[in-house]
Amino acid sequence: MNNIGEFISTLETEFDELAPGTLKPETKFNDLDEWSSMYSLIIIALIDTEYEVTISGEDLMSISKVEELYEMVKLRMKQ
Amino acid sequence: MNPFSLENKTILVTGASSGIGAKTAEVVANLGATVILTARNEERLLDVLKKLPKGEHQIIQADLTDDEAINEIVKQVPNIDGIVHSSGIVKHYPVKFISKKQIKEIYEINYEAPVVLTSSLLKSKKVNKGASIVFMSSIACNFPNKGGALYSGTKAAINSFSKTLALEHAPQKIRSNVILAAMVKTPLFDEAEKTVSKELMNKHGKQYPLGFGEPEDVANTIAFLLSLASKWITGTEIVMDGGLSAGM
């Protein structure tokens, strides 16, 4: 994961319902029409399998934007 | 003699360091049983042991995913009259994230460990005639949730294992049953709450006519299944869900 662009494209690939280019660093997850509880599960599993970083549902609730998620993952990858 | 009494019975409890396992150890010891507690964390096992009434209870620190540890338990335990399998993990993976690694992770502890422990104890003739075996399963095997493919699968597999065991060992009057539990307030509950968020969990709780379960609720039913009072019950599934699946 070199930059946020790469991170976003990884996310978009997993969400089949999202048209490429929908996600921006400032996009709020809750504003997405397709947002559902399934998305949280996918994000948690994706970040676990792709980056070997554990985030919880509570972690996800504590942030709202794509860039905040990126920062959280980046920080935990370093630890 | 009181058919609900567990006096003169020795019961092996896995996952005995916390949650349903710890509460079960306490409940069955109070009904007169001698308890052998096993789990990975020795310190927490000792804490549970301290709460038990006086007796010949013992703890065996063991990681059940390790074959050697299972051999060690089989060697160390005296002849037993009951096994309570309550060790286990809950992990959620959406279908498309499942690979052999995730399968191994969940099946090792939720399926292989209880199966191999049971068969090893039987093979070594450590299980007395008339013994009762109880597996902690989940209503998720009939009503899976998103992300629960692997977890639900391990529990469905355990149900079938238990039924086969009941059939094969009926001549020795050894019984085997599973408890299909819904959400019970254990450390696993707290973990699940962290994963899916408190908000979602509270919403889920509103669907339970009697609310979420307490470890004691399940432990009492386990004690009944271990006692002579349930001597005609085998190869079955007991649903404990506070009315969740009763209807709308």
Q: What is the domain tally of chain B?
A: 1
Would you tell me the overall average pLDDT of chain A?
A: 87
Classified in CATH, the superfamily of chain A is ACP-like
Radius of gyration of chain B: 17 Å
Order of helices and strands of chain A: HHHH
Question: What is the tally of beta strands of chain A?
Answer: 0
Helical stretch tally of chain A: 4
Distance between the termini of chain A: 15 Å
Shape descriptor of chain B reads globular
* Pattern of helices and strands of chain B: EHEHEHEHEHEHHHE
InterPro entries (chain A): ACP-like_sf
Protein name (chain A): Acyl carrier protein
GO molecular function (chain B): oxidoreductase activity
Keywords (chain B): Oxidoreductase
Gist of the model:
The complex is a heterodimer of chains A (79) and B (248). Chain A has 79 residues and is mainly α. Chain A is built from 4 helices and no strands.
